[in-house]
């Protein structure tokens, strides 16, 4: 069973990963475009923080605040945030 801290960490890692894929010009154009589309609808670090305050029908938290999670934020571009701007990848 996934615990709230693990779920939070996974969402932060995934958001960071989407940025990395979208900006990596060595990857196929279609893959980079798909990462941009997904990132537009993926929870940002701010969204995850807001979700941490919501409880499910049983009174449990699905995630914890990002500040309570040890995660490797060493991604070159950092976490996906409200201010992250991913431009639409074009052919070189």
Textual characterization of the structure:
- The chain is mainly α.
- It has one domain (4-68).
- The protein has 3 helices and no strands.
- It has helices at 4-23, 29-41, 45-51.
- It is elongated, with a radius of gyration of 15 Å.
- The mean pLDDT is 89.
Descriptive key words:
single chain, 92 residues, mainly alpha, 3 helices, 43% helix
Biggest sheet record: none
What's the structural domain tally? Answer: 1
Number of strands: 0
Helix content: 40-55%
Protein name: BPSL0761 family protein
Region (Disordered): 65-92
Give a brief rundown of this model.
With 92 residues, this protein is mostly helical.
List the helices and strands and how they pair.
Layout: H1 4-23, H2 29-41, H3 45-51
Helix pairs in contact: 1-2
